[in-house]
Fold Diacylglycerol kinase (ATP).
Amino acid sequence: MGIRVALAVHPGTGRGAAARIAGTVAERLRAGVDRLDLLGAAAPSTLTGDLDALVVLGGDGAAHHAVQFCAATGTPLGLVPAGTGNDLARGLGFPLDPVTAADAVVAAVREQRHRTVDLGRVGSTWFATVLCTGFDAAVNARAGRLCWPPGPHRYDLAVLAELAAFRARPVTLTTGTGRFDLDATLVAIGNTAYYGAGMPICPRADPADGLFDVTVIGRATRADLLRILPGLRHGKHLRHPAVRTLRAREVRIEASGWPWCADGEVLAGGPVTVRCVRDALTVLG
């Protein structure tokens, strides 16, 4: 049957960017493989038979759904980024230009170049980038509820709203090396370094070392946050005295009333136990 690849297209990603380039990407892939199956956003779960790779055209939300399909199966995942964040592609070293990424995917499939990376797991949900709770998760959740303004400006408005309302809360972190009780503003568990369209919240995270990097911002005033947040874009937040980091294979977080996000997707609340599963995902390249 030759090389069979499925392309899952998320047309709404990137304010329609994925839909605009879907034909070009499909053409590049079709020229390099023997069979290309075109799928809708939710279609990977309907796939049957042998598959040499699942390629996703979309952003981090699209990648998150594909990870649920590919995790622990050995089916290689390829990313053609077309979202506003593209943090998984960035964290794994995929090209951020979609046409370049499509060509790289074809080359990797034909040359059978695969590698494995770690994933995080919370309950039955896998995540590839960052799981977070606290201020950043609250911003993400609030932005998701807003209908206006369009695009990334929703996040600007959500940040302002959360700065006015947010307060640090008691949090308990339990790892293999101990228990930490503290008032915290934000907890981010990184399998890879980036979230929020390129912010290295866990700048030292390595998705192939079997460990999470955890960034905790302790009790912080609004003035502290206004000093910390601009530095996130360049990893300078680690210099602030309210910020601490640790590494762990498993983390239990108890934080009452906070929302949770993983790969930017909102999860159910409540205490969670997060595990790093080594080599759980096969990726192309």
In short: The longest strand covers residues 178-190. The helical segments are 13-32, 60-70, 87-92, 98-110, 135-145, 153-165, 222-232. The chain has a mean pLDDT of 88.
